[in-house]
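yo

u said u wanted the structure for the complex thing, so here. seqs first:
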Amino acid sequence: GQSLEQPSEVTAVEGAIVQINCTYQTSGFYGLSWYQQHDGGAPTFLSYNALDGLEETGRFSSFLSRSDSYGYLLLQELQMKDSASYFCAVWDNFNKFYFGSGTKLNVKP
Amino acid sequence: KAGVTQTPRYLIKTRGQQVTLSCSPISGHRSVSWYQQTPGQGLQFLFEYFSETQRNKGNFPGRFSGRQFSNSRSEMNVSTLELGDSALYLCASSRSGPEAGYEQYFGPGTRLTVT
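structre next:
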């Protein structure tokens, strides 16, 4: 199987920048995805990195380095509504989808 | 367009019973995946269907099964329920497979409680 490790919790101040890391052990995968889930809600897709490098979508950016088995999600200009859990995920070469353990982001005023 | 819908939203069952959950994907989406979410195990992949065929299955016992109909709607069934099956069951749909980036759209989930 696959293993995706994330910090369990991160706290940051409104307006700041926060980086959520994802390190993985996998034999092969198509790309790294990120999902956001608010308490009581369903996961929503944020970004996908098929290739190494940075992908930017508004205030959110995601990075992947396959050689380092590492990726991260960068959230800029944090807002209170960004308080949620964030999951990295991979769809591996055996057509199975794995989610990381999730990082709970607390945004404080 | 309408999002992914799941029915029922809440369900209470007794150990030993079976349950069927339903998922209607976004129109035009042919791939439907099912996930189990629990506080202890997180989000775990159950199986994925594409054009009525199960393409792959996660590491769950045979009590967990599913199917997909010609209109892409999907059902999952859990037989001989155990207390540990209490969880939020999420369905997600996608236009195609991982080659397209596999952006999944999740439904609100079915909260299953086994007593």
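Residues 62 and 101 of chain A are 17 Å apart (CA to CA). Chain A touches chain B at residues 1, 30-31, 33, 41-45, 48, 50, 87, 89, 91, 94-102 (CB under 8 Å).
cya
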